[in-house]
Amino acid sequence: MELLVLVLNQPEHLDAILEGFLQAGLSGATVLESTGMGRTLCDKVPVFGGLRNLIRGCRPDNVTVFTVIGSVEKRQKAVKVIEDILGDLDRPNTGLYFTVPVSMVRGLAEPLTE
Prior knowledge:
By secondary structure, this protein is an alpha+beta fold. 32% of the residues lie in helices and 24% in strands. The mean pLDDT is 83.
């Protein structure tokens, strides 16, 4: 099992990603509103606030999505959903994702059925 974490800098794509996860057989995810370092510096540090127009990373918000994935196959499906919707994540202000191993989990939701 793995925990997939997606930091999405384009929250307008959140619904499409979550719908794609459902279609890929992922039955649960947690979504948190989050703020990145660039945004925090733009808003709270006066020196950086003056550079707001020069920094393209000063987005108003982003979201972080967490989901536990039970197999490599489902991880590959989830990654495909993310990359199909967002395109090249190496572009600025897109987002990032990573996975970490999960050694134990309890309380996972049962897969949704139609």
